[in-house]
Amino acid sequence: MINDPIFGELEYDYAWFKDTVIEFCGKQFEISLSVSGEKDGKFLEKQYIAYQSFIKNWEQIQQNILQSLLDYYIQKRHELGYDVSFDENYPLIETIDQLLERISLVGVSVLYTKSLEGRYIGLSFDSTWDEENGLGVLLINEEVARVGYQDVAM
Q1: Distance, CA of 96 to CA of 93 (rounded, Å)
Q2: Ramachandran region, residue 141 (left: φ > 0; alpha: ψ -120 to 50; beta: rest)
Q3: E strands of 5-153, at which residues?
Q4: Residue 86 — φ and ψ, nearest 5°?
Q5: Which residues have a Cβ under 8 Å from the Cβ of 39 and sit 6 or more positions away?
C-alpha cells in the first residue's frame, strides 16, 4: 500500500487501485479508481495531470459523454438487429434519462501512456443490456475518443 499525494491511499494488484465515491449525473456511485503503473508506485507526471484535469472538468465531461453513450447504444442495438426484432435486454432507449436508468459508473482508470501524447482516462460502466462486457469510454484530453465495451477504458 502507498499513500500518493494526488491519488491517495492505493493498493497494488497488477495495477494500483482504491475504492472511492464519485458523483455521476446527480447520483453517488462507488467506483474503483485504478492507476496503471509499476509495483514501485512511481507514476508519470502526465498521469497526475490527466487525473487532476479530469477531476477539474468532471461536470462538463459528464455532459459530453452522455450523448456519445446514447449514440453508441442506438448503433449497437441497430447492429444487433434489435431495432427490428424485439429483445428485452436491448429496449428502445431514446433519451439520456432512459439511458441513465440502465447504466452505473463503476470505474475510473488513469492510464499509463508513456509513448502517447495527451491525457488518457478510462471510464467503465455496468449496463443492463450487456452485463458481461459492460460499457467503456476512453477520454483523451477530456474528450470522448472511443466508446465500446469496458476494455476500451483500460
Answers
A1: 8
A2: left
A3: 8-12, 16-24, 27-35, 103-110, 120-127, 135-140, 143-148
A4: -70, 140
A5: 12
DSSP state of 55: H
pLDDT at 86 over 90: no
Q: Is the pTM of this model over 0.85?
A: yes
Q: What are the backbone dihedrals phi and psi of residue 148, each rounded to the nearest 5 degrees, phi first?
A: -175, -150
The answer to whether the CB of 134 falls within 8 A of the CB of 107 is no
Helix/strand/coil for 79: helix
Classify strands 2-4 and 135-140 as parallel, antiparallel or unpaired: unpaired
Residue 145 to residues 47, 56, 73, 87, 96: CA-CA distances in angstroms? 17, 19, 16, 29, 19
- Residues 94-113, mean pLDDT to the nearest whole number: 96
- C-alpha neighbours within 13 Å on the C-beta side of residue 33: 17
Place of cell 452485463: 131
**474503483: which residue's cell?**
32
Cα 34 from Cα 40, distance rounded (Å): 15
Burial (CB < 10 A; 0-12, 13-18, 19+), residue 25, is: middle
Distance CA 150, CA 117 (A): 22
45 DSSP β-pair partners:
none
